[in-house]
Amino acid sequence: METFISRRVFIRVGAASSLGLVAGCGMILHPERRNQPPGGAIDWGIFALDTVGLLLFFISGVIAFAVDFSTGAIYLPPPMYGDDRTSSKSRSLVAVRIPREELTQRRVEEVASQHAAREVRLVAGEYRSAPLAKLDEFWPTRAKLAAIFG
Questions:
Q1: Which residue from 48, 61, 72 is spatially nearest to 20, judged by alpha carbons?
Q2: Geometric angle at alpha carbon 28, from 76 and 33, rounded to 5°
Q3: Residue 118 carries which DSSP code?
Q4: Inter-residue contact 61 to 50 (CB < 8 Å)
Q5: Residue 43, Cβ neighbours under 10 Å: how many?
Q6: What is d(CA 49, CA 42) in angstroms, rounded to the nearest whole number?
Q7: Which of 81, 79, 69 is nearest to 32 (CA)?
Q8: Of 89, 75, 149, 80, whose CA–CA distance to 113 is shortest?
Q9: Per-residue CA distances from 105 to 68, 72, 100, 108, 130 (Å)
Q10: What is the rounded CA–CA span in Å between residue 141 and residue 89?
Q11: Distance of CA 60 to the CA centre of its chain
């Protein structure tokens, strides 16, 4: 006995399965988590949405889990990860002087790691620098760099 599926039913099932993939994919809900360090605490909300996608639409659920685990979007960001612009202005800035003869990338990483109380790595092309005459110029310069480079 042959079963025919109407075009309308086919479109509804396709739309629902696509919605299941989109709704359950942490990569789409939290694009800022893309390429964050793997591991750590799992975001149970994203895990639940991926599981719903897995139960209702098996293929799209598997794809959502694969994408979220491979990009790291299923994990909560570790503490101090990212850029917290709301509270960083309330903290005071500290001027650190490094003698010009010691001014190397490795030395700057060491000093920054010491003051940030976490590891700091400067990878060429992943940071921006600008000379400052006074430390008070930091916030306006930061806003200009963010506007230029996103």
A1: 61
A2: 30
A3: S
A4: yes
A5: 20
A6: 13
A7: 81
A8: 80
A9: 34, 29, 12, 5, 15
A10: 13
A11: 23
| pLDDT tens digit sequence for 84-118 | 444 545 566 777 888 888 888 899 889 888 887 88
Cβ burial 4-18 (10 Å sphere, 16+ → b, else e): eeeeeeeeeeeeebe
Question: pTM value?
Answer: 0.45
Tokens standing for residue 77? 């960001």
Cα–Cα–Cα angle for 130, 132, 91, nearest 5°?
100
Q: What pLDDT, in 10s, does the model give residues 64-82? A: 888 888 888 888 887 655 5
For residue 41 the two structure tokens come to 């605490």
State the Cα–Cα distance between residues 149 and 143, nearest whole angstrom: 10
